[in-house]
Amino acid sequence: MIKYLATLLLFATLPLTTWAQMTFGFSTAPVSTTTLQNGTQQVTFPDGTKLNDLITHVLIDGIEVAPSSVSPDPTTTTLRNGELEVFVHDGRAYSFVFKAPAATFTAVIMSDPHIEQGGHDGVSVAEMQSMVQRIIATRPAIVFCLGDMDKDSENSASDFTSAFRGFNDAGVPFITMCGNHDLVPDYWEGGDRGVTYGGGHTANMKALDVVSKQLEEAKKHGVTEVVRFHDSNLKSGTTQFDPFVVNFRGVNFYCGQTYWFQKPYTNPGFMDLFGKSPVKYWSPDGVIAELETFVRSHGDVPSVWMQHYPFLSGSDCDRWWLDECKPGTVPVSDATQYSTPRAKKLKYAQLINMTTNPVHFSGHTHTYDQQTYEGITDYTVAGPGYMTGSVYVVTLQEGVGVIKVERKSI
């Protein structure tokens, strides 16, 4: 290991009659060393330097001493970024502050690719593969897709997987979630029910499986934690959509699928084919309660919130917050606190505002927009087909969160 010497001249904080000189060997060269007014030495390292295992050896007045003769041992001490560290040797105390500004990284956020779906600004597999390679060339740390992955009620998912496989091959964590074209609504046009035996339910299972498999893949490439939210009080045989949080480089990314209030439903049975056993829907209250419990214990972590539906963008925004494609909603079979779009949005905003430095992203409308709801900025991103390869490029700082949002053509 290459060792760098940094000579630090300072006053001892205990009484002494001579100048004392302490020399550290570092595994990474410091950018600068400054003496503060109180005599403490501030040593600054390049952005993103890890402070653990940084000090390799110690010298006092030019003579190397055993690290174990210093209390605490500088070579085994976990240094704290920007905080005072005091080392004592032979009755003399030496004070330091070690600083390593947190590294920045970029996230690319897109939505609504509608792979191989005509009439919805969709793009082909080949077009998306080309765009994926252009995104990789910009060296993003992580990439998100906010739903509407492929064709309506797509049962194979092969087109989407093929279109985005480049991220996995390049080792870039890629996280996707479901939109309203992936999870069918209560009703399609003309009063036709969305979730049916052999129909929408099968497509839902395939879409949720794609999301889960991609989460497992992302964990191989730097995603350190995945927490999924599930109402444990619902019986088996119920489909839940398991929105989730991933932690990446000190930032929590809250991923709500279509939206955090999507209603679970009892799986349709064979008799549903004859209209004898219609699907029952259940309230999302249990999932929201689990989310609130998590937020209350992780509110100090910087956050990015995402779901398919925007807060305000789109003339029919509220209709989608009622799980409708066309007017017509199946009521839940139990009690709920969130029966109106306003009740859902206010609760959602309350949870977001309980976290640190929150920013919100959404898709669905196929247009770029920026709205504010209850103090929360919501950036809506258009699909790549509509905007010819345009995405949001988000700059974040580890442990800080979003510091810049830019719309760019890739």
Topology of this protein?
Blueprint (H helix, E strand, L loop, with lengths): L3 E7 L9 E7 L5 E4 L5 E4 L10 E6 L2 E3 L18 E6 L2 E8 L4 E7 L14 H13 L4 E4 L12 H13 L3 E3 L23 H19 L6 E4 L9 E2 L4 E5 L2 E5 L9 E2 L18 H14 L3 E5 L10 H4 L20 H13 L2 E7 L6 E5 L2 E5 L3 H4 L2 E8 L3 E9 L1
Parallel strand pairs: 4-8, 9-10, 10-11, 15-17, 17-18, 18-20
Antiparallel strand pairs: 1-2, 2-5, 3-4, 5-6, 7-8, 9-21, 12-14, 13-16, 14-15, 19-20, 21-22
Helix pairs in contact: 1-2
Description:
The structure is a single chain. The chain has helices at residues 125-137, 158-170, 200-218, 285-298, 317-320, 341-353, 384-387, and strands spanning 4-10, 20-26, 32-35, 41-44, 55-60, 63-65, 84-89, 92-99, 104-110, 142-145, 174-176, 225-228, 238-239, 244-248, 251-255, 265-266, 302-306, 356-362, 369-373, 376-380, 390-397, 401-409. The radius of gyration is 27 Å and the shape is elongated. Residues 1-18 have low confidence and may be disordered. The chain starts with a strand and ends with a strand. With 410 residues, it is an alpha/beta fold. The protein has a 7-stranded mixed beta sheet with strand order 12-14-15-17-18-20-19. A 5-stranded mixed beta sheet has the order 11-10-9-21-22. Strands 1-2-5-6 form a 4-stranded antiparallel beta sheet, with no helix packed on it.
